[in-house]
Amino acid sequence: MPDSTRNSKSANRRSFIKKGLTAGAVGGGLAMLSEPMKAFNFDTSTLQSGGLSKGDAALLRFAAAAETLEADFWIQYNELGGIQDDEVKGGSGNPVYTAKLSLLDEDFPQYIHDNTDDEITHAAFLNAYLRAKGAAGVNLESFRTLPGSRATGSSGIARLTNLTQLTLDTSWYTRYRDDSHNPDLDPNFVFPQAVPDLNKGQFTAIPITDDDLVPDDHIQAIANTAAFHMPTIEQGGNSLYPSLAQRASSVEVLRILISIGPTETMHFQTWSDVATSAVSDPHAPLTDPTNGLTFPDLNSSPFGGEEFTTNLIMPEPCPFLSRKLPRCSVIRPTETRGAAMAVVRFLTSMGLFIGQSNQFMELMRQLATQADAAQREC
Q1: Contacts of 42 (CB under 8 A, 6+ apart)
Q2: What residue segments make up the domains of the chain, in order of their start?
Q3: Cα 41–chain centre separation
Q4: pLDDT class for 50, splitting at 50, 70, 90?
Q5: Residue 18 burial class via C-beta count within 10 angstroms: exposed 0-12, middle 13-18, buried 19 and up
Q6: What pTM was computed for the model?
Q7: Among 8, 14, 64, 82, which is 20 to 30 Å from 185 by CA?
Q8: How confident is the model at residue 199 (pLDDT cuts 50, 70, 90)?
């Protein structure tokens, strides 16, 4: 390739990335932030003085992008199955879908609403903080091109993420119950899937149209898929924040990461408990008559035991840092090397980005590469 052509393509890519990192994103329904910081009506003099290091800004930008994407799919869930109020706007609710979610846990709609609100505020805060420190935020609005649900209750707006073709890795279920292995120490160990079928095909977690509201076992399987998608996502954030925090230089940035991270853990704990209802009596076993997707009863043979029994939801102590040390109950994984890029691969393999452009994927890879390159400055 001639040098002039190569340089031209590099310049175009840099220009695209620069535009993709313009300040903005998410707040009150994913609106653009383009006003000066005084519009947020808080005293920036209480913040640590000085700007951000290149690495710290990269860490927060990747987190802001991840939270923007989370907010997008949680809003989709809330429109159809959450509490409808002015705090989380958009949509009007789908009574059939909501009823199937509530069959798993009567507080399901409230949990969706509150989780959605949390992710919107995370993204808004991270972008506002970056702007307050004179750094670029993340604006993904130009990538809002994917179709969402057309079922009753959906707002019908374009989306950033795809909830209709999910392939879920449910091995987190057994990973947190395994007392002998930790992916940080055993990166090649294969943890069993809780719902093997979800890892084999592509399934929707929301009704795509009102045709998905029947037959009864079909819409229940869709609700069950959502119940497993939610902890699958949140366990990712559960690991991401401690992984990124190890690279932070500023004490204030460290404080942000270790303050937001535990809320993701609270989400994970809540949803991992709710998900057990989909794989235990009286709701399981259940097979979707339209596609054969089966949710087994994890308390019955060939499942059962400490790896699968549904009332064991606390993380088992496992090897940590070294097998020469006593086992310890910890978040896993928390390896910091390549953590951001691992998240991009995880979300991509899940199907969350099916339909997104090559430019979107390039931006996400750039954000992850920059975050993974951050070095702790002492």
Answers
A1: none
A2: 20-38+49-372
A3: 29
A4: confident
A5: exposed
A6: 0.89
A7: 64
A8: very high
